[in-house]
Amino acid sequence: MTQGKSAATRLIVNADDFGYFDQVSRGILDAAERGVVTATGVMANGPALPRWIDRLKAVRSLSVGVHLNATLGRPLTAEMREKLGRDEFPDTGALVGSLLLGKLPVSILLNEYRAQIEHCRRAGLALRFVNSHEHVHMLPMLYAKVRALAAEFGIAHVRAPRPEWGHASTAGGLLRNGAFTLSRWFAGASSEPIFIGLAPSGRLNEAYCKWRFARLRRGVSYELMCHPGWDDPHARENPKLGAYHDWEGELNMLMSAGFTQLLRERGITLSSYDAAS
Fold first, then answer.
1. What is the pLDDT of residue 5?
2. Has residue 238 been placed in a domain?
3. Count of H helices and E strands in the chain?
4. CATH number, position 266
5. Is the pLDDT of residue 78 over 90?
6. Higher pLDDT, 201 or 82
7. For residue 161, what are the CA distances in angstroms to 106, 132, 171, 191, 260?
8. Domain span at 266
9. Taking 50 as the threshold, does the pLDDT of residue 125 lie above it?
10. Per the domain annotation, does 4 fall within a domain?
């Protein structure tokens, strides 16, 4: 992470959830082609991925990573499906409970993650980073192991969420803050771009950006998590996802003149994981 009084503040705008829903994937690509989304995490088990992967690979300025997923859709490995006793991943609470109680061995989850990385590589994607759906990789028993898995595949960056205090947050956000603090304590220091965007997760907005960007340090790299997309009727069929996300609100904000002006006013340069390596 480069620092210096005269250096620009660098911001990676990283869109989660590429490849699962058609209209969300299309929105991410629209924003990437406009230059305001600079990275995206691919859900390897996403049913929409085959329809969008060629357009994804055509956006040369976009850093692509794997958005490891164990809480939405169908596992890639038969081993995981057999252990779960079902063809669909459980929700986050059930997954975490199974891991904590030892009902789901960590090794089986890591094998599923490995299969997701391999699937993306076989599709011809140059992988620059790893993160996870619902931040599952930040569980204390997983974080160091996921970092080792990424290193095995030559993937330089693993998202390192950190607590974000001082902005309106939900009870769930406060619980995540505690979990992230514990995971980072176990795993040790990280040189990753500083993670921001936790407090408004799913509903990133201009008010948050104004508040957070005013507190960024010159010469430091940051990762802004976002969930942009066009409204997707299929995604809305899942009540939890529909209540959590404001896909079009985020997309319109990121592509607005106001967001561009805010970056300019704060001396922020949009960057990618290729530049951060």
1. 46
2. yes
3. 13, 8
4. 3.20.20.370
5. yes
6. 82
7. 21, 11, 17, 12, 25
8. 9-276
9. yes
10. no
